[in-house]
């Protein structure tokens, strides 16, 4: 069975601190895709990144970086020098890659990040 | 390019009623997926439609159904509403491949009294 676990329910930091959001996944597929989404208070999920199971290169986008490690089935997300605007709920998600499986996303429970000034 | 739109944004119904939610995907997207978000269960996949056919379905009772039209717009219907159906219903559109990012709409907040 496929599963995504975000063990951190809530994290509170002060502006300019670095913060890492953990994501651990389970799947029997050899080909799969991992995603991170951000949900601000407005409610709309915003796509942040996609990774396929064959690409373990870390990625950096501005203050955001992602660390994908197949050996530990983890896909962690780090925000450097956090800002108040980063306050949101962050979701890690997994999708299968079997033909005709469609695009169903399996989400973790989410991590609520609060950044105070 | 217009994003995913969902109507209505808010809805209040009573137990036993039925409700229809609508989703208009991004132009050119043929896949529409529906998700239910509740504080207890989090985000759960309901079903996906691609080219007017249901391609994938989550573990929800038959009271939850949907359809997709030839212009890719999709509707979701919930019959015989229960209190537990109160949730944020999110619609997502994509090109339809499993590695495509899904673009989400603002959601419909359904409250069942």
Please summarize what this structure is:
With 117 residues, chain A is mostly beta strands. In chain A, 0% of the residues lie in helices and 53% in strands. In chain A, a hairpin with a 2-residue loop joins strand 7 and strand 8.
Tell me about this structure.
The complex is a heterodimer of chains A (117) and B (113). Chain A has 117 residues and is mainly β. Chain A has strands at 3-5, 10-14, 19-21, 24-26, 32-39, 46-52, 59-61, 64-69, 74-79, 88-96, 105-107, 111-116. Chain B has 113 residues and is mainly β. Chain B is built from no helices and 11 strands. In chain B, strands 2, 4, 5, 6, 9, 10 and 11 form a 7-stranded mixed β-sheet that branches. Chain B has a 4-stranded antiparallel β-sheet with strand order 1-3-8-7, with no helix packed on it. Chain B is globular, with a radius of gyration of 13 Å.
Q: What's the helix and strand layout?
A:
The complex is a heterodimer of chains A (117) and B (113).
Chain A: E1 3-5, E2 10-14, E3 19-21, E4 24-26, E5 32-39, E6 46-52, E7 59-61, E8 64-69, E9 74-79, E10 88-96, E11 105-107, E12 111-116
Parallel strand pairs in A: 2-12
Antiparallel strand pairs in A: 1-4, 3-9, 5-6, 5-10, 7-8, 8-9, 10-11, 10-12
Chain B: E1 5-7, E2 10-13, E3 19-24, E4 31-38, E5 42-50, E6 53-57, E7 64-68, E8 74-78, E9 87-94, E10 103-104, E11 108-112
Parallel strand pairs in B: 2-11
Antiparallel strand pairs in B: 1-3, 3-8, 4-5, 4-9, 5-6, 7-8, 9-10, 9-11
């Amino acid at each position: 069975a496929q599963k995504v676990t975000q063990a951190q329910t809530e994290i509170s930091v002060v502006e300019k601190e670095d913060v890492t959001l953990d994501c651990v996944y389970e799947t029997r597929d050899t080909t799969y895709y991992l995603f991170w989404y951000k949900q601000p208070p407005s409610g709309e999920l915003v796509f942040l990144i996609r990774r396929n199971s064959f690409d373990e290169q870390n990625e950096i986008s501005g203050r955001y970086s992602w660390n994908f490690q197949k050996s530990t089935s983890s896909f962690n997300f780090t925000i450097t020098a956090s800002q108040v605007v980063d306050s949101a709920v962050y979701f890690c998600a997994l999708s299968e890659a079997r033909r005709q499986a469609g695009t169903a996303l399996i989400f973790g429970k989410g991590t609520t990040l609060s950044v105070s000034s | 390019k217009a994003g995913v739109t969902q109507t209505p944004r808010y809805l209040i119904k009573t137990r036993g009623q039925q409700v229809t939610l609508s989703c208009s995907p991004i132009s050119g997207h043929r896949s529409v997926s529906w998700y239910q978000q509740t504080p207890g269960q989090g985000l759960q996949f309901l079903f996906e439609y691609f080219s007017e056919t249901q391609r994938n379905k989550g573990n929800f009772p038959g009271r939850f159904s949907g359809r997709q039209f030839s212009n890719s717009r999709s509707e979701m219907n919930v019959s015989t509403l229960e209190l537990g159906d109160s949730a944020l219903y999110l619609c997502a559109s994509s090109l339809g491949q499993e590695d495509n990012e899904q673009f989400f709409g603002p959601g419909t907040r359904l409250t069942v009294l």
